[in-house]
């Protein structure tokens, strides 16, 4: 909700009188005498040195441009080490001020916020949010307000109070937490925003229309800072982690004794090498307090994308981010990126083969020995980042009746990412480049299927004109991977490439003698970013040989896509609406052989009503589709088109009880498939300090052409599909209890069930026949029979009573329960104690059948859970 609001309206902070929408300015002063005490009471003599700014804030929502319904004033002071802020937030009903509690970056209730462009580069800023309840929020803003990184956690100080006129926030921000040039006198960009929760009103000091083509470049100015020097930040945070695990004991398995314990040490550091260069370092990191990924069952040919959750890699990730495509119209290709930090410390790729009487202790992740990030930006607008990480060689321990051996499952690997950008013409033009390298020390023959070396690079360019109303964006990427013939053949035949498929032979083919592979990709887009009508159109491509998945993320290669998107929006209240958006989208997909693989058009609309409810609906018409990957190396297969519809609503989030609901359904033409699903979210806030959310959902999938397996008959391949009737239940449970702004208890739990029953087995006969029913042959009862003894389906194609081939039953019944409870106490700023309890249970039965929560209760909850109890103590030294 926070990011949606910011993207929809933009946001935040600064001071003083001006006429119309001209650039405002506020003149600050150096503290003379004693600095203000940060106690939420503005009785320090120092505050008399400067005048109040503000008092004339204007709404950014709901009534853009209108005077704010409540007044907000501020003062700013500084000394050699700190910036001091005082906010006076007037409220005619002090007893009605909404004092919601949350953990850091919760952005709940009434708050005031300042954004500071201390680089004065018109593109980046530091945001500090002060909640009336004393909760702090902080974000690093980049890309002129398009990216807000809430994982940036600087050290600063806040106290608040409520009086008869409203509420007060008093703030001290150490200058070491900001970045600015070394010069005698400074001008900084600033913006100040007030969130008046009761009316869902946001007001800003420097008025910026919500349909403006950016955010930071339109800030007001802070003047009068002289004689301050950039501070060299030096923070070292050692930590100790003690962990105990309990799990199911297995007779005869020396690795499954039922319990294990461990203690570990590590270190994080943030070091300002110069005023422009910062080093972030982690040694032997532990991420045991991080929430688990949500459960999923993947029946597609492609890998799943999971968001990064580890703090070291999240903070400042925008510096290294290099998406191949940034399509406003959306598309699964939008997740393609040259840097996907989840590759570092990933699950080992190899699993050892076991003989009779052997059991194995297989690590679930490769260990990160150390990682470092260097970032810098100078006064000329040149920014850069360099990340390097080393992961250890990972081995499985294999036991055979007391005799043990070790087998490598992941080699020692070094990862490097370098990123540079240069601002030109006050940020109206930006050029940049990136380079990544993955180098593996492969010493074991079973790992020679991995790339020994993998390199990617790219250049990007953005140019804005006519006061940033219009823009053109281009990027180009390349990749080069090298390894053994086995490794490169494996890449050519992987699901992302599938050079071996018969329908690709006219333009690509497998070369088993190759020891390297090179490819390219890119995007060209042009658009309009401000006004009542905005739009974007573009084209993106991936050559057949492009490979990013060693340190990046790639859904599929061999792709050319054209898209167009347009939006009409009304961002001021009218009739029964607070605001309205209507979008139209169009996509065309091709492969490098010139085949049109997909075409789609979409229309959708979204409104917020004056009763503070959100709602929206949309429909997508999909033409005939061709998949190059569904038969896993077989011919491309054609599917009929279809129609997808969806709608949602969200109730007033100011209430103690709020709800959201979404329903979607897809119907394939010619009775080829259907799917539908719904999700519900209920949130209850019994008190300001507690938040309880239940989010159940259910999906139904009925696909007549789900891939099953590939086999051989008379030296010819047989591509087998079937009808799958899949039902998936899931529910997410969240409970947040905020005892104080620095002491929180958070619980997350997710029961998950997915059942798939297969029937109507088929073999593909002519995958691209004109008539849908001519593309496959459905096995008759005389051709297929299930063997209860072997658990396989036996196929007799020519009905001569001789089994021609067999395959295992693909039915499944998967259930999983994951939970995570974390007590987090920031006992002094920057130093934290974590108490963590993680629990997981998994049950997989390779048969269909019961797809209700009875299965979760009977076969999953009865299982012995895998519990992890962890205590992590960190202490941050500021030197």
- The third-level CATH topology of the domain at 2-226 is Immunoglobulin-like
Query: Any low-confidence stretches, pLDDT <50, length ≥5?
Result: 1-20
Question: What is the radius of gyration?
Answer: 29 Å
CATH class of the domain at 2-226: Mainly Beta
* Annotation field: number of helices: 5
Query: Strand-residue fraction?
Result: over 45%
- The assigned CATH architecture of the domain at 2-226 is Sandwich
Structural class: mainly beta
The average pLDDT is 93
Structure description:
The chain has about 900 residues and is mainly beta. Helices cover about 5% and strands about 50% of the residues. It has 5 helices and 49 strands. A hairpin with a 2-residue loop joins strand 39 (about 690-715) and strand 40 (about 715-740). Residues about 1-20 have low confidence and may be disordered.
A few lines on this structure:
With 879 residues, this protein is mainly β.
Question: Topology, please?
Answer:
Elements: H1 2-9, E1 25-27, E2 29-30, E3 53-54, E4 58-61, E5 72-78, E6 82-90, E7 111-117, E8 125-131, E9 136-142, E10 147-149, E11 157-163, E12 166-174, E13 185-196, E14 201-204, E15 220-226, E16 234-246, E17 259-272, E18 277-283, H2 311-314, H3 317-320, E19 358-361, E20 368-377, E21 382-391, E22 394-400, E23 403-410, E24 412-424, E25 429-441, E26 453-465, E27 470-482, H4 485-493, E28 516-528, E29 533-542, E30 559-570, E31 577-590, E32 596-609, E33 614-622, E34 625-627, E35 637-639, E36 642-650, E37 657-668, E38 673-684, E39 690-713, E40 716-740, E41 743-764, E42 776-778, E43 784-787, E44 792-795, E45 805-808, E46 812-828, E47 831-845, H5 853-860, E48 866-874, E49 877-878
Parallel strand pairs: 1-15, 2-5
Antiparallel strand pairs: 3-5, 4-14, 5-6, 6-12, 7-8, 7-13, 8-9, 9-10, 11-12, 13-14, 13-15, 16-17, 16-48, 16-49, 17-18, 18-20, 19-22, 20-21, 21-24, 22-23, 24-25, 25-26, 26-27, 27-28, 28-29, 29-30, 30-31, 31-32, 32-33, 33-36, 34-35, 36-37, 37-38, 38-39, 39-40, 40-41, 41-42, 41-46, 43-44, 44-45, ...
